[in-house]
Amino acid sequence: MEKRILVITDYKDAYRQDISRSQGIDLVQFKQVLEQEGYAVSQITYNELVNHSSKKGYTDWYIVYTSSENIEYKEYIKDIIYDLQKRNEIIPGYDLLMCHEDKLYQEIYKRNLGIQSLDCQMYATMKDLQKDIDNFHYPVVIKNCVGAGSISVFKADNKKELMKCSKKIMLSKDFFEYYLKAAYKKVLGKLSPYYFEDEKYFGRLVVQQYVPNLECDWKVLVFGEKYYALRRNVRKNDFRASGSGKFSFETPDDAILTFAEAVYEKMKVPFLSLDLCINDAKQVYLIEFQGIHFGPYTLIESPHYFVHSGAWEKIEGKSVLAEEYAQAILQYIEKKLK
Ligand SMILES: Nc1ncnc2c1ncn2[C@@H]1O[C@H](COP(=O)(O)OP(=O)(O)O)[C@@H](O)[C@H]1O
Ligand SMILES: [Mg+2]
After folding, report:
1. Which SS3 state, helix, strand or coil, does residue 84 take?
2. Domains by residue range for the chain, with CATH
3. Beta bridge partner(s), residue 274
4. Span 52-102, pLDDT tens digits
5. What ligand has the least distance to the C-alpha of 148?
6. Distance from the CA of 239 to the center of ligand 1, in angstroms?
7. Could you give the angle at which helices 27-36 and 321-337 cross, rounded to 10 degrees?
8. 197 vs 312 pLDDT, higher one
């Protein structure tokens, strides 16, 4: 393939995300690194690409693209990228776009790659969840499919709590429409005897095996050969770490880095964000992951990174986000071409 890269940015002309969610990475710096390696870099927004470009049918490009935290806008991106990936090398692959802000597809993808981790069940209706309610090993962790900073993550100690919690997650406008429609049909004399057998709770969630007694989890970012690790302590009287703000750049157990490396290699991506935890028996679990549009705090603020050269080695020094994105992409392309 020719040495040319198309960078697709969003409505704000941003490639997300920098330290703030509303900020894109420095694309001038990013392009400089790629151009120094002989790549021609073009930039276009999704809107320009589908509506205004004479070249709607890009073919044989390396395409670097961004996602969105807005669900509607992400669906728009998915439509466009799904088409482009048929004729181009998109970076990262489509599965990682599917995984973005979608804890349910993350579990399906993880399972298919054979990444051993926590038991997990996935639901989108209360009727299906109810059928399995006696089969879980309590406590369990229940997570809304979308959400960050622990706001949509809960623990249920028994089936009553699980029902209560999942009803809250699945309570949407569908629920109210269900009863409104019933009332309307009744007035018209058209209420079918089967109507109330239908579902009124819809909402995607996962029920995950609970890892007890954790003091922290580890955010590990992987960019090419560089591993960045952030220890995140759980909140007071709580089991949740993300969003707690109790962060420190400590050296993790080797088992964390080695697990991160195995996941990174299986996923065949340029960069990755992993939430990992380790129990007293030194068993590591992958709590969740993102391969696009993830928070870069761990890279930007870290005073060092780790590389695996025989043993895990700590290299002192700060990293520049846009440069690391570009370097990781270069390494990824080089590996793919081999
Ligand atoms: N299965 C689990 N067992 C124990 N703690 C968990 C589990 N899953 C998540 N947690 C805790 O809850 C926090 C939030 O969960 P996570 O799935 O990462 O959601 P979010 O997208 O909100 O960060 C994690 O940082 C971790 O501390
Ligand atoms: Mg998390």
Report:
1. helix
2. 4-99 (no CATH), 119-210 (3.30.1490.20), 213-337 (3.30.470.20)
3. 220, 289
4. 987 667 999 999 999 999 999 999 999 999 999 999 999 999 999 999 999
5. 1
6. 8
7. 40
8. 312
